[in-house]
Predict the 3D structure of the following.
Amino acid sequence: QAVVDFEQLGEHAAAFQGHDVGFCCLGTTRAKAGADGFVRVDRDYVAQAAELARAGGCKHFVLQSSRGANAQSRFLYLRVKGEVENLVQAVGFDHCTILRPAVLLCKRRESRPMEWITQQFLGAVAWVFPTANSVPVETVARAMVACVLQPGEKKVKVLENGAIHELGKA
């Protein structure tokens, strides 16, 4: 495990050398980092990490994005997620898998009251419609590993929430 300063990521290129696979789940919130900070973390840091990984020999990059990601969206969150998907694809990995989960169900250290309420509601909905609007982070992690173990023929593969649930069962 290497600790890097994302503000000086280029100085940590050695940490990205010699890995066949790269997994990226980096992200923050606009509330926590402000609009500019959100863009810097969710787009700029991720794109630069992908470039360093490719230069270091990475062949398969797996990116956790978001349901509804669209570079043309009027909404900052979805636009940034769409932009970073495009940037990562443009790096030129042999394989690039993009996961677009719905609301992530997880326990957080920091308090996010509205997110907690939403998670409680969606957790209840998940009993009836398990793949509709949410996905446990453990399922996303299993799907990320599974897509590397069985990459398929496509250069770029995009997995929506239902496919994440299916692949994450393994």
